[in-house]
Amino acid sequence: MKQIDTRDPSQAGRRFPNTLVFTGYAAPVRIEGDAFDLEVIGDIPPELHGYYIRNSADHQFPPLNDDDLFLNGDGMLHQVGIHAGHADLRTRYVHTEKYKLERSARRALFGAYRNMYTDDPSVNGKERTTANTSVVWHAGRLLALKEASRPVQIEPQTLATLGNYDFAGKLGSQAFTAHPKIDPRTGEMVAFGYFTKTVADNIIEIFYIDREGRLTRTESFDAPYPSMVHDCALSEHYVIFAICPMICDWERVKNGEPFFHWDDRQPTLVAVVPREKGGASRVRWFRSPKAVMQTHSFNAWEEGQLLHLEHFVTETGWLSQFPDINDPAAEEKPPFAYRWTLNLESTAGSFTSIRIFPHVGEMPMIDLRFLTQKTRHFWFGTTNLALGPALPRGPKGPPFTCLGHFDAEKETLDYWYAGAASSPEEPVFVPRSPGAEQGDGWLMAIVGRRAENRTDLVILDALNLPAGPVATIKFPCRVHEGFHGVWVPNRAAAGGHHGGGS
């Protein structure tokens, strides 16, 4: 790890490293700006009034360490406001304490991913969050999230940063997941944090936040080892965690090694926590027959004594970001969608696993009005070589070339191919109306037009992907590759209340 002395004036104007993270289509964009009345091919559905907002990791300055990760970029929000068939683009950094300190210094001051020991001494003890992973809309608040820190509140229409958010002082944890779940029937948001005192430990805290945005209680339980817990799942009566051997060894962190490493000598376990008060004291454990990594969750639902957990799973960790401690040359294997079924009346401590559909994928999406219930429709990013060639590997791994849809009732798969040198990102589902049938609505996704060094936002009929976009909103420039997004209806953003639909 090459350390740069930022106190040296010669570091002014230092170039970004010549690595996958900082070159080509992945290169930092760094522009906060507005583009009014974007060009639209096709017709934006008249029911759509609101804001598509997604988060990304866009390094503000060349990093202190030349081998810095894509994950370590500063939070940059991309918003497309849609009103009466028109679309406007707005991009803004999340103005965290880290962002402001580095902006004032005109150089990077914070070092390696989640590693305080690599920071410039001038920022010892300062807030390190980049707030770069996702956004959630709940109880009239938009929060930018990164699992290593507290939420940052954002004004949804202007994208102005309002400051760190601690739920009226009720959030004691220094960490808050990037993947909270909102129960569509009760409006309750269930979130969690791991390494909640910033250093690696085994404690996982669960936060229960009512539909009005009040943090009503915090509970905790101990995991068997200190691991990355990136996502969770929520059913009617349980919150479920996959504990996977993407492990943090704090002595290695102090020595400047990567924050996580994959160690499949440890087991993959599933923790099932009842949602009622005191449930964390009654956690049930189930063991996978082999070490695997949950990447992102579709859904969880109950069927009598059976609990079904639907998610993407890979046989390796995120080796594009963190090494395999037992085989440094190992390459990341692709994720597939699985349904794990746990019998809550069994004492065996095992579960069954079936592949939901026979195709690789990631960045799952369902109709979130049906979270905690049996789901018929599954959307995801993927590559389908029958429709077009794969793209060169990037800093997050292989880019998608398609969006996919699986209909579990018909057991059919269909795809939309984005076109030559085009890479769609995470799909976001927007129902046609609050009372529409499951899956009746639109799929929205950012698409990188790599040959043109430009970006689009596409809107597709969610149940007819092969028909292609009903509207393509053309950006006049490239925005940075991102992670997770959300749709905020205009009436909700303007009125400051929790809402759904279009």
Descriptive labels:
502 residues; mainly beta; Neuraminidase; six-stranded antiparallel β-sheet; five-stranded antiparallel β-sheet; 3 helices; 33 strands; globular; disordered N terminus
The CATH homologous superfamily name equals TolB, C-terminal domain
Report the count of strand segments.
33
The CATH class assignment is Mainly Beta
What summary fits the major beta sheet?
Answer: 6 strands, antiparallel
Query: Unreliable runs, pLDDT <50, ≥5 residues?
Result: 1-7, 497-502
Question: Could you please describe the fold and organization of this structure?
Answer:
With 502 residues, the protein is mostly beta strands. It has one domain: Neuraminidase, CATH 2.120.10. It is 4% helix and 38% strand. It is built from three helices and 33 strands. Strand 26 (402-407) and strand 27 form a beta hairpin. The chain is globular and about 60 Å long. The model is unreliable at 1-7 and 497-502 (pLDDT under 50).
Question: Topology, pairings included?
Answer:
Elements (H helix, E strand, L loop, with lengths): L32 E3 L3 E4 L7 E8 L17 E9 L2 E8 L3 H9 L28 E5 L2 E5 L6 E3 L6 E4 L16 E2 L6 E6 L8 E7 L5 E8 L10 E2 L3 E6 L2 E2 L2 H5 L6 E2 L6 E6 L9 E4 L5 E11 L2 E9 L21 E8 L8 E9 L1 E4 L11 E6 L19 E6 L4 E6 L4 E3 L3 E4 L9 E9 L4 E8 L7 E6 L7 E8 H6 L7
Provide a quick synopsis of the model:
The protein contains 3 helices and 33 strands. It is mainly beta.
